[in-house]
Specification:
Length: about 240
Amino acid sequence: MNFPWVIQLASADAASLAGLRLSPGLEVAERAASLWLRSRNTDEALMRIVVCVPALARFEWLTNGGLRPVASRIPSATMPALEWQPLARWLSVTTLATAWPAAIPRPVPVKLVRSSAEAEPDLLLTDLEQWTRFARTAAEVRLRPLRFAVDANRRVLVQGGPLPALPGQRFVSHGPIAVPAGFTWEPGVSAEVLAKGWRVPLDALVLWHADGTLSRLHPEQFLPATRSALRATADAFAAS
């Protein structure tokens, strides 16, 4: 599309807009169970991402406020009177962060140690290329129980189960604390006590790496493992 445009999409597909968050000139509005996105920005790189958004309808935005479906020559609608706001502001609370905080104060003198107890991993830390290759060919039923978060270094944390058989580091969740598979901590205080000592909300997730470093993630940083979310994420990195 090389003209001002408007698209309508289902609210359930909001995650597909993540790759557009930093693009200038985009506005979004909510209406019932759908979202409306509009812009006069027709930059080629931007449009490569926009065409991948799973839209319910696509329109040309006419100068008189009319809307022409892209598959038609005749305007058949008008711009809905909604509360429009910049996409970057609208997504600032719900989109995934581009980096994970690496340093968290650790007032409790605990350390990771090897453990003989067996537990099923529910987190996989891998890279974006491996994850993209898997998710593009996996059956939808295989992706449905999974979520993922990506950081600026193209690391992907996959959550759920069963985890895909990809190279990477597997972790086991203990409430808000996740440790590498085959590890536990000493002294054996509860995960809730650790989280409180580290001032971590109980709905957050602390990834405790084998080298002792910590990463903290919040629920809104995870996206459902849908192909639309995957495309938006991959396109965002390709355009950067």
